[in-house]
């Protein structure tokens, strides 16, 4: 098969710093303007900034192996990567050369002139960029981040409803071992056994495995916080179980996912001393404003993103800010942005990562591989509220974890269906 040359748009590198390794033995052409665009993002304290910095490091490593102008082989069995500029005469007069996208297009057109026998393909996540390329006769493709599900509705919910004989339900309530041999269930999946003769008779249980009895789902509380519906009851059972060190919760605004996670963390850190400390964090993904526009030190810049977490903690402390500050000072509660957490190895801690839907697959994998001994990690988020423009509901880090780890006995997941914050919040989440 003839080799091709792929020209990657800036947004591809900002989506995945490993993207240059994804094109088999074909060559990669990096427009000089793309390097300039990546440089503008490198100081951002969010996931995009991290991808920009990783891309720069990767290119610097390649530079040490040769000359990027002449071309450097990416790896054994891979193609060559080059950095090139453009011939301004290649761009039609209709397009403004001051525009960054047009300079990248001009680079692709220049390469088509230099190598007429080689197929040149523009890869971009920008729809309008692909339309412009198509209009100019440039073959174009989207960069497909791995989709873990075809659509968000197909995502594993962590729950199932099973019709059962009434006698089985009676045996379950009597404390007799009930084993379900059900190939479609996953470890730590919650099931509602419903009588096939009386739909009003049901039992809530947690599936452990095909060779183990199902477990009763008891009504429990954490830090004076009680579940208000069965999904919250499921979630709290997972959060309070030290045998399940990885828990993921998905739910719309006001469903209680963050509050339950924090309540369970406080109960097991300050109440039962199961863990030495609680660490709460979230990726910095600005909505409307970039972090650079906020005044103050880096810590002060982070506070607007961490404020919702602080609000929840203060609420759980009975609005006692002094007590909360005391636990902060003693190091039993840490609230930090993902920027400070990344790279640390944290042991014997209860970690809550909020807004995980804004993390990429690579980022959440990096975080999970840093979890130390005796640590429980809780991932929360709403896959319908993604602020990172480079990912969506089918390929974000939270969906990735839910689908890839659903068959592991050390993980558990619950999708919270019902809003409990207020009637206004529930209606807004559903209707707006």
List the helices and strands and how they pair.
Blueprint: E1 4-8, H1 10-15, E2 27-31, H2 32-41, H3 47-63, E3 72-73, E4 80-84, H4 100-114, E5 119-123, H5 127-135, E6 139-141, E7 159-164, H6 166-173, E8 189-195, E9 202-207, E10 215-216, H7 230-239, E11 246-251, H8 257-271, E12 277-281, H9 298-316, H10 321-330, E13 333-335, H11 338-341, E14 349-353, H12 361-368, E15 376-381, H13 397-404, E16 411-416, H14 423-431
Parallel strand pairs: 1-2, 1-5, 2-4, 5-6, 7-8, 11-15, 11-16, 12-13, 12-14, 14-15
Antiparallel strand pairs: 3-4, 8-9, 9-10
Helix pairs in contact: 2-3, 2-4, 7-8, 8-9, 12-13
Description:
It is built from 14 helices and 16 strands. It is of the alpha/beta class. The strands form 3 sheets. It has a 6-stranded mixed beta sheet with strand order 3-4-2-1-5-6. Strands 13-12-14-15-11-16 form a 6-stranded parallel beta sheet, sandwiched between helices. The chain has a 4-stranded mixed beta sheet with strand order 7-8-9-10. It is elongated, with a radius of gyration of 25 Å. It starts with a strand and ends with a helix. Mean pLDDT is 87; it is low at 287-294.
Summarize the structure.
It is built from 14 helices and 16 strands. It has 432 residues and is of the alpha/beta class.
Key features of this structure:
alpha/beta; six-stranded mixed beta sheet; six-stranded parallel beta sheet; 14 helices; 16 strands
């Amino acid at each position: 098969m003839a080799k091709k040359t792929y020209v990657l748009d800036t947004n591809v590198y900002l989506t995945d710093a490993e993207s240059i390794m994804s094109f088999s033995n074909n060559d990669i052409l990096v427009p000089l303007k793309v390097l300039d665009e990546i440089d503008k993002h490198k100081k951002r304290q969010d996931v995009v900034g991290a991808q920009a910095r990783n891309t720069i490091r990767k290119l610097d490593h390649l530079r040490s192996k040769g000359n990027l102008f002449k071309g450097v082989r990416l790896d054994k069995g891979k193609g060559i990567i080059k950095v090139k500029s453009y011939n301004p005469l290649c761009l039609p007069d209709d397009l403004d050369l001051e525009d960054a996208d047009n300079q990248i297009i001009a680079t692709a057109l220049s390469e088509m002139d230099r190598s007429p026998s080689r197929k040149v393909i523009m890869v971009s996540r920008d729809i309008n960029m692909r339309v412009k390329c198509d209009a100019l006769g440039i073959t174009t493709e989207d960069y497909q981040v791995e989709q873990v599900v075809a659509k968000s509705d197909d995502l594993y919910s962590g729950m199932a409803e099973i019709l059962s004989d009434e006698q089985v339900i009676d045996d379950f309530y009597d404390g007799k071992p009930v084993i379900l041999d059900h190939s479609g269930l996953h470890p730590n999946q919650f099931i509602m056994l419903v009588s096939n003769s009386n739909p009003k008779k049901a039992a809530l249980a947690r599936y452990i495995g095909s060779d183990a009895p199902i477990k009763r789902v008891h009504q429990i509380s954490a830090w004076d916080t009680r579940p208000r519906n069965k999904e919250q009851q499921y979630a709290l059972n997972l959060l309070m179980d030290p045998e399940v060190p990885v828990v993921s919760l998905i739910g719309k605004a006001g469903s209680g996912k963050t509050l339950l996670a924090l309540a369970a963390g406080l109960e097991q850190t300050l109440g039962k001393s199961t863990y030495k400390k609680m660490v709460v964090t979230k990726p910095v993904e600005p909505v409307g404003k970039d972090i650079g526009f906020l005044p103050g030190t880096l810590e002060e810049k982070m506070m607007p993103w961490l404020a919702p977490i602080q609000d929840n903690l203060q609420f759980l402390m009975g609005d006692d800010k002094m007590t909360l500050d005391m636990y902060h000072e003693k190091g039993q509660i840490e609230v930090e942005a993902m920027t400070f957490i990344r790279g640390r190895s944290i042991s014997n801690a209860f970690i809550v990562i909020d807004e995980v839907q804004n993390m990429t697959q690579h980022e959440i994998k990096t975080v999970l591989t840093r979890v130390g001994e005796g640590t429980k990690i809780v991932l929360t988020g709403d896959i319908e509220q993604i602020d990172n423009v480079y990912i969506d509901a089918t390929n974000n880090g939270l969906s990735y974890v839910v689908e890839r780890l659903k068959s592991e006995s050390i993980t558990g997941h619950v999708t919270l269906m019902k809003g409990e914050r207020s009637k206004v919040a529930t209606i807004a989440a559903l209707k707006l």
